[in-house]
Amino acid sequence: MGQLTDWLAAHAEQLDASNDLAESVLPVLAGAQVLAAGVPQEHGGAGGDVRDAIAAIANVAEQSVTAAFVFWGQRCFIEFMLQSPNRALAERRLPGLLAGTHAGASGLSNAMKFLSGIEQLQISGARQSDGLLVDGSLAWVTNLRKGGFAAAAAVAPTDGAPPVIVAFDSHAPGVQRNDDLDLIALRGSNTASVRLTQVAIASADIISDNAPVWLPQVRPAFLGMQCGLSIGLARASLARAEAISVGSRNQLTPRVAALQTALEQAVDTLLSGVHDGRFQSQAPAMFRLRIQLAELVQQALMLELQAMGGRAYLSAEQQGFARRWRESSFIPIVTPSLTQLQSALAQFDAAKAAAAA
């Protein structure tokens, strides 16, 4: 992890501001062997469980949310393979994914919103003798390496059967990766949209043939690892605020300590819920935790800003603050966004109240 930390510290600003190093992120992560965190040893991993993956993503996010976002996309795709009943698919794809020679992208943001009743699926598929012929698009996907990638997507069959989860490859006929999105930050994350036109998906590349059943099982890992972005960024900002405040007259030290305690309590709740499985059936509790962590990020950045004072507006005094401020603006809008989660919670509360009436 030491060499990875040094590399991220040296390149965090560049990763945020440009795509010059976008193709380097995944190989660097793989070289540090962090992609194997939480992957069972029998599948080529380092052992442990998804809690280890969350911790690893959080560690990377302390240095660079761009790199952590790529890490999240790759590790989500790995998790989809681990939790797929299609064991042949997992055995075929996992070695390259863990080695970082094959990029994996989580195109399931649309599916997660669909599961919560927020959005309709954006990809449809007609049955073929050996799989599906799919059409549609994914508006925002990260880790779409220009040298090639695989991505997961939810497909609504045109015959009315339950939605399925598929994997598709960038080199398949009909797959079009568009130019990188013109982001204000995280520009080295290989984030773009994808268009699928009459793309043939073989049965061998179906991750799950029953998305409504499978998605709730994988959602805690999907959201839990996404929360790693918030955890790492909040820790970095609070550490900086603490370092500035020690011995100063700004009176912020007690507030920083209180927020650090609140953050670690939220982390403990997250890891516990992911481990014991309760978030599979208690999605609202996880939604509220994701919202809480995003709010803690905003509070942490405000404390760092207050600790820095006017120096925060001086280029020579930054030490990463402006980058962290831009990174923090991404946390509330990464899918599912806080607004979408709040909408889903409102629907849940309304349904619960109606049932109790």
Break the fold down into its secondary structure elements and pairings.
Elements: H1 2-17, H2 22-31, H3 50-63, H4 65-83, H5 87-99, E1 104-106, H6 109-115, E2 123-128, E3 131-141, E4 150-157, E5 164-169, E6 175-180, E7 192-202, E8 206-208, H7 211-245, H8 253-276, H9 278-281, H10 283-308, H11 321-330, H12 338-356
Parallel strand pairs: 1-4, 2-4
Antiparallel strand pairs: 2-3, 3-7, 4-5, 5-8, 6-7
Helix pairs in contact: 3-4, 3-7, 4-5, 4-7, 7-8, 7-10, 8-10, 10-11, 10-12
Say what oligomer this is: single chain
> What's the CATH C level of the largest domain?
Mainly Alpha
Order of helical and strand elements? HHHHHEHEEEEEEEHHHHHH
Largest sheet features: 8 strands, mixed
So how many helices?
Answer: 12
Share of residues in helices: 55-70%
Radius of gyration: 20 Å
- The rough form would be described as globular
- Going by CATH, the architecture of the largest domain would be Up-down Bundle
Q: How many domains make up the 3D coordinates?
A: 3
Q: What is the beta-strand fraction?
A: 15-25%
Structural class: alpha+beta
The CA-CA distance between the termini, in Å, is 54 Å
By CATH, the topology of the largest domain is: Butyryl-CoA Dehydrogenase, subunit A, domain 3
